[in-house]
Design goal:
Blueprint (H helix, E strand, L loop, with lengths): L5 E2 L5 E2 L5 H10 L22 H21 L4 E9 L14 E8 L7 H14 L8 E4 L20 H26 L4 E10 L3 E8 L10 E10 L49 E9 L3 E8 L3 E11 L2 E4 L5 E4 L3 H15 L8 E6 L3 H4 L4 H11 L1 H37 L4 E8 L2 E8 L16
Parallel strand pairs: 4-5, 11-14
Antiparallel strand pairs: 1-2, 3-4, 6-11, 7-10, 8-9, 12-13, 15-16
Helix pairs in contact: 4-5
């Protein structure tokens, strides 16, 4: 294009400032500059006669490029590269392999990804590739740190933190129910409860097929029935005029399917032939009945409470004695039983589940022995001795600074100034009253004299 340019670091092309926009328009007309990663635009210009292997490679490159572009949209990610390994499909299930993926992230300086963002990248890549599981995706940053480990839900002990949090929430909800129903009766802080929940996190899917025992034919449904009848002539030989008349096919049956009991000879059968005088008829009936079958598919949800154990402690009730002094008094057996029933109803007690409740009435440590004021002061001084000493020394230093340094300086500054200016001043007089010393100030009054006179009274 006859445009002067210079190549800089990182592939940067520098051109004169007055030709920047013209060069950009000309390059854009040619589809330049192209992004570092390619996406599904690889599938736009497919060559005729391309092999299946090349198509598969282009498709894999397109997926990797599109995933890299999507991950780079995250604010903390400067650039990303994605590598997907898709194994060749096999017709044998035991030989099938799961695809894997690796993600390389180049983060901006001073930025980090938390566990939630890493989990989002893992699920994003896993959802974009068929049969790719989250555990088969690895995420690494520019420093080689394994980020996919941050989103691992299980710790080293194999426990799921979300499951532990859920169990704690379940237990706390039951504790709150029990304490909320007992605090209005005994007061706040006079009832304590702890609940242990056995929660089942197993995900169970079960399909069962059951057959009922054989039942009588009447309530059962008939699937098929086959009846075969053979007529006998009682030992008589075949007779008649041979010919076409004797070889005619039997006529349509006009009698019921089964021969009524006690039918007289001459009654028509299934084949339309009359029963002979000897009544020899051979009949074979085969009946197939439907079998009762039940198919049941059950999916048990996670987080079901299998068992609850509750321990409740209730404080002694404060009752006045003969002198009117409040005294801790234990509850009666009937009251303890009522508390037990309330706790069971509050927690949803289920005997079949194996729940247990234990209610104990005992005196709490802080209420069993009354604490006097002297003991409280002693405990406070003992626990805060260092703070009290520090504050005491600080107070002494402030008093010394105020009365030993500031006060004499102010007194010396005020006294000469008042005498030199000839203004009315206050004099200080020392006197001893009630075993202590005090200062009395005497103020002079102005008289019709040429100069003011200061009068000082001696003690």
């Amino acid at each position: 294009m006859n445009v002067p340019y210079q190549l800089g670091e990182g592939g940067v092309i520098s051109v004169p400032a007055d030709k920047v926009y013209d060069a950009r328009l000309k390059l854009a007309a040619q589809g330049l500059p192209k992004a570092g990663g390619v996406g599904f635009e690889l599938m736009d210009n497919q060559k005729f006669g391309i092999s299946q292997f090349a198509e598969q490679v282009n498709y894999q490159r397109a997926i990797e490029g599109e995933l890299a572009r999507t991950i780079e949209a995250i604010s903390s990610v400067e650039s990303a590269r994605v590598h997907v390994a898709v194994p060749k499909q096999s017709v044998f299930i035991r030989d099938q392999q799961q695809p894997t993926a690796s993600v390389m992230l180049n983060l901006y300086r001073g930025r980090m990804l938390d566990a939630g963002q890493v989990a989002g990248i893992l699920h994003l890549v896993s959802s974009s590739v068929p049969n790719l599981q989250v555990k088969n995706v690895t995420v690494v940053d520019q420093d080689g740190n394994l980020l996919s480990k941050m989103s691992d839900q299980n710790d080293a002990s194999g426990l799921d933190q979300r499951q532990l949090t859920y169990v704690h929430q379940v237990e706390e909800s039951y504790v709150k129910r029990i304490e909320d129903i007992l605090e209005p009766i005994f007061g706040k802080g006079n009832a304590r409860a702890q609940v242990t929940a056995n929660v089942d996190f197993a995900e169970v899917e079960q399909t069962s097929e059951s057959y009922k025992p054989n039942s009588s034919p009447n309530p059962s449904a008939t699937r098929s029935q086959q009846i075969v009848e053979k007529l006998g002539n009682g030992g008589a030989q075949a007779g008649g005029v041979p010919g076409a008349l004797s070889n005619q096919p039997p006529s349509a049956a006009s009698a019921p399917i089964t021969l009524p009991p006690g039918a007289a000879p001459g009654t028509a059968t299934l084949s339309g032939q009359a029963v002979g005088a000897s009544g020899a008829v051979e009949r074979d009936i085969t009946t197939n009945y439907e079998v009762d079958k039940t198919i049941q598919h059950t999916k048990v949800p996670q987080g079901l409470v299998k068992r609850l154990s509750a321990a409740v402690v209730v404080n002694y009730r404060m009752m006045p004695d003969r002198n009117g002094t409040p005294k801790p008094t234990p509850l009666t057996a009937q009251e303890v039983q009522q508390i037990n029933n309330l706790v069971k109803e509050a927690m949803g007690f289920n005997t079949q589940r194996g729940d247990t409740v234990n209610v104990v009435n005992a005196a709490f440590a802080d209420a069993a022995v009354p604490v006097t004021l002297q003991e409280k002061v002693t405990d406070y001084v003992t626990n805060n001795a260092s703070n009290l000493i520090k504050y005491g020394l600080l107070t002494i230093a402030m008093l010394y600074l105020l009365f030993g340094v500031v006060r004499p300086i102010v007194k010396e500054l005020v006294k000469p100034g008042a005498l030199a200016a000839g203004e009315t001043e206050k004099a200080k007089e020392g006197a001893t009253e009630a075993g202590g010393a005090c200062w009395r100030l005497l103020v002079t009054r102005k008289e019709p004299r040429p100069k003011p006179r200061l009068r000082v009274a001696k003690p």
